[in-house]
Design brief:
By secondary structure, the chain is α/β, with parallel strands linked by helices. It is built from 14 helices and 13 strands.
């Protein structure tokens, strides 16, 4: 069986999870990897067959995605070229972790696409949602990487096809301690803003991991260093607590390591608002933003001794086996493949995606 595993490369979480999933998929057939996006701070220790720029988001420095930079960096003509370049008809099974190039290649060729991602769980009707629904954000989340089947990971198994997080082996093998420092990872904020707020907590040792600085430095009780996988997980393993965005992998790993957790969702990021709602319901404190006016809440959190207890067993191999059994027992000869469809007009692609988004908003 020929398998394509497509991974979003914009953030670290997708690639971190892929490290544990790839060797499991290799057991079931001939596996090719596809990665699109260029903002991750880690690399895969496996050969990547297809490497695309894709359709990524650019982090800002004030707590959210920089929409202007995202727009300027987007290149729909290049994206179409990447979509049309994949020999999608040659694969028996496509598994997609929120990756748009292969997802749209499957869509325009009427090909099965199995979503295996956190995003596949966020939009489930049984998963926690924020009080104020962002219909446009919800629609974009749904059609950024469209799929025919959905399997998701979330902080709890809210539904049949939702599973508890993939905790990578290097995290599971750690021996957590408490060395007294606090680990901070807030990629949507610049170092200046983070330091301005954290220095108000003068008696706390902060270890900040920055996406905006390539060299380490220290300012009084705050150390700042570039993000590297080993340094970050070692810091988290020895931390008294963790402050991070309301993403998925980092909060899940922090809770698995029994760390006190505080999250700050990225502005105008619907997925993170959903995550924040789920974490809040579990007892994790949530801040709307990183500002001086919230320092009292941070100081109150620092005084807490409790953490949110979770049970995240290693079930990744069972999840992969389920997907293979339900969707992968086919061969190239038994597939009903339509002739490859090529969309060469940028206008046609925009109309197609906009039509789907507007239709979703209207429902």
């Amino acid at each position: 069986m020929k398998i394509l595993y497509a991974i979003q490369g914009t953030g670290n979480g997708h690639l971190s999870r892929a490290r544990d999933i790839i060797p499991l998929l290799q057991k079931y057939g001939d596996l090719d990897l596809l990665v699109s996006g260029e903002q991750a701070d880690i690399n895969l220790p496996y050969p990547v067959r297809y490497k695309f720029k894709g359709l990524g988001f650019t982090f800002g420095t004030k707590g959210g995605v920089d929409l202007m930079k995202t727009y300027k960096k987007s290149n729909i003509r290049r994206l179409l070229s990447e979509i049309n370049s994949i020999p999608i008809e040659s694969y028996d099974l496509i598994i997609n972790d929120f990756e748009p190039v292969s997802a749209w290649a499957c869509y325009i060729n009427n090909k099965q696409c199995v979503a295996l991602s956190h995003q596949g769980a966020v939009l489930n009707k049984h998963a926690p949602q924020p009080k104020h629904t962002d219909l446009a954000g919800k629609a974009i989340l749904k059609y950024y990487a469209p799929a025919t089947e959905h399997y998701g990971f979330h902080f709890k198994d809210y539904d049949t096809n939702i599973y508890t997080p993939v905790i990578r082996r290097e995290i599971r093998d750690l021996q957590p301690t408490n060395k007294g420092h606090y680990t901070v990872y807030l990629p949507a904020y610049n170092d200046k803003r983070i330091i301005k707020v954290l220095r108000e907590c003068k008696d706390t040792q902060w270890q900040v991991f920055s996406r905006h600085n390539k060299t380490s430095f220290k300012e009084k009780n705050i150390s700042v260093e570039p993000v590297t996988n080993e340094a970050f997980i070692n810091s988290m393993a020895g931390a008294a607590g963790v402050i991070c965005g309301a993403g998925f992998e980092t909060p899940a790993e922090a809770m698995f390591l029994q760390k006190k957790l505080l999250v700050i969702p990225m502005r105008k990021q619907y997925e993170q608002y959903c995550n924040a709602s789920a974490l809040l319901s579990m007892g994790v404190p949530v801040l709307k933003s990183l500002k001086l006016k919230h320092c009292d809440k941070i100081k109150a959190w620092l005084k807490l001794d409790s953490f949110v207890a979770v049970d995240y067993p290693d079930i990744t191999s069972q999840v992969i086996a389920t997907i293979i059994n339900l969707h992968g027992r086919v061969t190239a000869q038994t597939l009903s493949i339509q002739p490859p469809m090529k969309i060469t007009s940028v206008g046609t692609f925009k109309k197609l995606t906009l039509k789907k988004i507007l239709a979703y908003i209207a429902t």
